[in-house]
Amino acid sequence: MEPVGWEGVRKFRITSVERPVTTKRKRAVSGVRAVRTPQGGKNFLVYAPCAHFAPEGSEVPLPSSRNLTLFEDEAAQKLLCYVEPAKEVDGQLHHVVRDGDHAVIGVVRRVPPRRPFRHTWRIDRPDLPEMVGRNAWASSGPGVASRVAVTTMRVGMSVIDSLGSEGEGRGTTSRALEWWSGDDMVMESTGSEEVTIHNHLVDRRLAFAFALVGDR
Fold it and tell me: Using CA atoms, how far apart are residues 192 and 128, in angstroms rounded to an integer?
Protein backbone atom coordinates (compact mmCIF):
# COMPACT_ATOMS: atom_id res chain seq x y z
CA MET A 1 0.00 0.00 0.00
CA GLU A 2 1.27 3.47 -0.90
CA PRO A 3 2.53 5.33 2.21
CA VAL A 4 1.62 8.93 3.05
CA GLY A 5 3.72 11.66 4.66
CA TRP A 6 3.67 11.74 8.45
CA GLU A 7 3.96 15.52 8.93
CA GLY A 8 0.35 16.45 8.15
CA VAL A 9 -1.45 13.41 9.55
CA ARG A 10 -4.64 14.38 11.40
CA LYS A 11 -5.77 10.96 12.61
CA PHE A 12 -3.87 7.72 13.09
CA ARG A 13 -3.74 4.37 14.80
CA ILE A 14 -1.08 1.71 15.28
CA THR A 15 -2.38 -1.40 13.56
CA SER A 16 -1.66 -4.09 10.99
CA VAL A 17 -5.09 -3.64 9.38
CA GLU A 18 -4.84 -2.15 5.89
CA ARG A 19 -8.46 -2.51 4.80
CA PRO A 20 -11.06 -2.81 7.58
CA VAL A 21 -14.49 -4.35 7.27
CA THR A 22 -17.03 -1.94 5.74
CA THR A 23 -20.49 -2.25 4.23
CA LYS A 24 -18.78 -2.90 0.89
CA ARG A 25 -15.96 -5.06 2.26
CA LYS A 26 -16.88 -8.20 4.17
CA ARG A 27 -13.41 -9.24 5.27
CA ALA A 28 -10.53 -7.22 6.72
CA VAL A 29 -7.15 -7.27 4.98
CA SER A 30 -4.00 -7.01 7.08
CA GLY A 31 -0.39 -6.13 6.33
CA VAL A 32 2.55 -5.24 8.57
CA ARG A 33 2.05 -3.38 11.83
CA ALA A 34 2.63 0.34 11.33
CA VAL A 35 1.36 3.79 12.22
CA ARG A 36 -1.55 4.16 9.80
CA THR A 37 -3.89 6.98 8.85
CA PRO A 38 -7.41 6.61 7.39
CA GLN A 39 -7.86 7.39 3.70
CA GLY A 40 -10.88 7.21 1.40
CA GLY A 41 -14.61 7.15 2.07
CA LYS A 42 -16.34 5.02 4.69
CA ASN A 43 -17.28 2.27 2.23
CA PHE A 44 -13.75 1.94 0.86
CA LEU A 45 -11.75 2.98 3.91
CA VAL A 46 -8.06 2.06 4.01
CA TYR A 47 -5.37 2.65 6.63
CA ALA A 48 -2.29 3.90 4.81
CA PRO A 49 1.10 3.68 6.56
CA CYS A 50 2.79 6.94 7.56
CA ALA A 51 5.50 5.59 9.90
CA HIS A 52 7.05 2.15 10.16
CA PHE A 53 8.59 -0.29 12.61
CA ALA A 54 11.74 -2.19 11.73
CA PRO A 55 10.85 -5.45 9.94
CA GLU A 56 10.74 -8.62 12.02
CA GLY A 57 14.19 -10.19 12.16
CA SER A 58 15.84 -7.07 10.75
CA GLU A 59 19.49 -6.46 11.62
CA VAL A 60 19.05 -2.69 11.42
CA PRO A 61 20.61 -1.14 14.56
CA LEU A 62 17.93 0.37 16.80
CA PRO A 63 18.39 3.24 19.28
CA SER A 64 15.57 1.87 21.48
CA SER A 65 13.35 -1.21 21.51
CA ARG A 66 11.67 -2.18 18.24
CA ASN A 67 8.22 -1.24 19.55
CA LEU A 68 9.44 2.24 20.55
CA THR A 69 11.31 3.10 17.33
CA LEU A 70 9.77 4.45 14.13
CA PHE A 71 11.15 4.91 10.63
CA GLU A 72 9.97 6.95 7.67
CA ASP A 73 10.34 4.01 5.29
CA GLU A 74 9.30 0.37 5.42
CA ALA A 75 12.91 -0.79 4.93
CA ALA A 76 13.87 1.05 8.15
CA GLN A 77 16.66 3.05 6.55
CA LYS A 78 15.54 6.54 7.64
CA LEU A 79 15.01 6.97 11.38
CA LEU A 80 11.99 9.13 12.27
CA CYS A 81 11.87 9.11 16.07
CA TYR A 82 12.17 6.89 19.10
CA VAL A 83 11.22 6.76 22.77
CA GLU A 84 13.86 6.05 25.39
CA PRO A 85 13.13 3.56 28.18
CA ALA A 86 11.09 5.18 30.94
CA LYS A 87 12.85 6.81 33.88
CA GLU A 88 11.21 7.59 37.20
CA VAL A 89 11.49 11.26 38.20
CA ASP A 90 9.75 12.45 41.37
CA GLY A 91 7.24 9.62 41.18
CA GLN A 92 6.46 10.20 37.50
CA LEU A 93 7.52 8.06 34.55
CA HIS A 94 9.35 10.16 31.97
CA HIS A 95 9.57 8.91 28.37
CA VAL A 96 12.09 11.05 26.48
CA VAL A 97 11.36 11.33 22.75
CA ARG A 98 14.16 11.91 20.22
CA ASP A 99 14.10 12.65 16.50
CA GLY A 100 16.04 10.98 13.70
CA ASP A 101 19.13 13.03 14.60
CA HIS A 102 18.86 11.91 18.25
CA ALA A 103 17.87 15.39 19.47
CA VAL A 104 15.26 15.62 22.23
CA ILE A 105 11.91 16.82 20.86
CA GLY A 106 9.80 16.31 23.98
CA VAL A 107 8.96 14.22 27.02
CA VAL A 108 5.83 12.13 27.55
CA ARG A 109 5.12 12.05 31.30
CA ARG A 110 2.89 9.57 33.10
CA VAL A 111 1.63 11.25 36.28
CA PRO A 112 0.58 8.86 39.08
CA PRO A 113 -3.11 8.75 40.02
CA ARG A 114 -4.88 10.44 42.87
CA ARG A 115 -7.59 8.18 44.21
CA PRO A 116 -10.20 7.45 42.99
CA PHE A 117 -8.91 8.66 39.61
CA ARG A 118 -6.54 7.00 37.16
CA HIS A 119 -3.12 8.26 36.15
CA THR A 120 -2.88 11.28 33.84
CA TRP A 121 -0.51 12.35 31.08
CA ARG A 122 1.56 15.40 30.17
CA ILE A 123 3.63 16.05 27.06
CA ASP A 124 6.43 18.59 27.44
CA ARG A 125 7.37 20.43 24.25
CA PRO A 126 10.39 22.71 23.74
CA ASP A 127 9.32 26.35 23.31
CA LEU A 128 5.60 25.47 23.52
CA PRO A 129 3.17 25.03 26.43
CA GLU A 130 2.78 21.51 27.75
CA MET A 131 -0.08 19.32 26.58
CA VAL A 132 -2.30 17.97 29.36
CA GLY A 133 -4.32 14.80 28.85
CA ARG A 134 -7.69 15.07 30.62
CA ASN A 135 -10.36 12.45 31.00
CA ALA A 136 -13.04 13.44 28.48
CA TRP A 137 -15.80 12.98 31.09
CA ALA A 138 -14.13 15.50 33.40
CA SER A 139 -13.39 18.23 30.85
CA SER A 140 -15.28 21.47 31.29
CA GLY A 141 -16.14 24.32 29.01
CA PRO A 142 -18.61 25.17 26.23
CA GLY A 143 -20.23 22.21 24.54
CA VAL A 144 -19.13 19.67 27.14
CA ALA A 145 -22.40 17.70 26.88
CA SER A 146 -22.11 17.31 23.12
CA ARG A 147 -18.43 16.38 23.42
CA VAL A 148 -19.27 13.67 25.94
CA ALA A 149 -21.88 12.26 23.55
CA VAL A 150 -19.40 12.25 20.67
CA THR A 151 -16.73 10.68 22.89
CA THR A 152 -19.14 7.93 23.93
CA MET A 153 -19.81 7.11 20.30
CA ARG A 154 -16.08 7.22 19.44
CA VAL A 155 -15.18 4.80 22.23
CA GLY A 156 -17.95 2.44 21.18
CA MET A 157 -16.85 2.50 17.54
CA SER A 158 -13.24 1.90 18.56
CA VAL A 159 -14.22 -1.19 20.53
CA ILE A 160 -16.34 -2.52 17.66
CA ASP A 161 -13.53 -1.88 15.19
CA SER A 162 -10.96 -3.60 17.41
CA LEU A 163 -13.20 -6.64 17.74
CA GLY A 164 -13.49 -6.79 13.96
CA SER A 165 -9.74 -6.50 13.36
CA GLU A 166 -8.16 -9.88 12.84
CA GLY A 167 -5.92 -10.81 15.74
CA GLU A 168 -6.09 -7.39 17.38
CA GLY A 169 -9.31 -7.31 19.38
CA ARG A 170 -8.96 -7.03 23.13
CA GLY A 171 -12.62 -6.69 24.01
CA THR A 172 -11.94 -3.91 26.52
CA THR A 173 -13.15 -0.33 26.66
CA SER A 174 -10.46 2.30 26.10
CA ARG A 175 -10.22 5.57 27.99
CA ALA A 176 -10.98 8.74 26.04
CA LEU A 177 -8.68 11.69 26.70
CA GLU A 178 -8.82 15.29 25.57
CA TRP A 179 -5.43 16.95 25.27
CA TRP A 180 -5.34 20.63 26.17
CA SER A 181 -2.66 23.27 25.74
CA GLY A 182 -3.77 26.36 27.61
CA ASP A 183 -7.38 27.01 26.57
CA ASP A 184 -7.16 24.98 23.36
CA MET A 185 -8.00 21.32 22.88
CA VAL A 186 -5.22 20.26 20.52
CA MET A 187 -5.60 16.47 20.42
CA GLU A 188 -7.89 13.59 21.38
CA SER A 189 -7.05 9.97 22.04
CA THR A 190 -9.02 6.80 22.63
CA GLY A 191 -6.76 4.59 24.67
CA SER A 192 -3.73 4.03 22.49
CA GLU A 193 -5.88 2.82 19.60
CA GLU A 194 -6.76 6.07 17.84
CA VAL A 195 -5.40 9.61 18.05
CA THR A 196 -6.91 12.71 16.42
CA ILE A 197 -4.88 15.92 16.10
CA HIS A 198 -6.66 19.29 16.01
CA ASN A 199 -3.77 21.76 16.00
CA HIS A 200 -0.99 22.06 13.42
CA LEU A 201 1.55 22.91 16.15
CA VAL A 202 1.31 19.40 17.60
CA ASP A 203 4.47 17.55 16.60
CA ARG A 204 3.15 14.31 15.12
CA ARG A 205 6.18 12.45 16.44
CA LEU A 206 5.14 13.28 20.02
CA ALA A 207 1.63 12.04 19.29
CA PHE A 208 3.13 8.86 17.83
CA ALA A 209 5.28 8.51 20.96
CA PHE A 210 2.24 8.61 23.26
CA ALA A 211 0.59 5.87 21.22
CA LEU A 212 3.79 3.79 21.32
CA VAL A 213 4.04 4.09 25.11
CA GLY A 214 0.36 3.26 25.53
CA ASP A 215 -2.25 4.53 27.99
CA ARG A 216 -1.78 1.89 30.67
Answer: 23
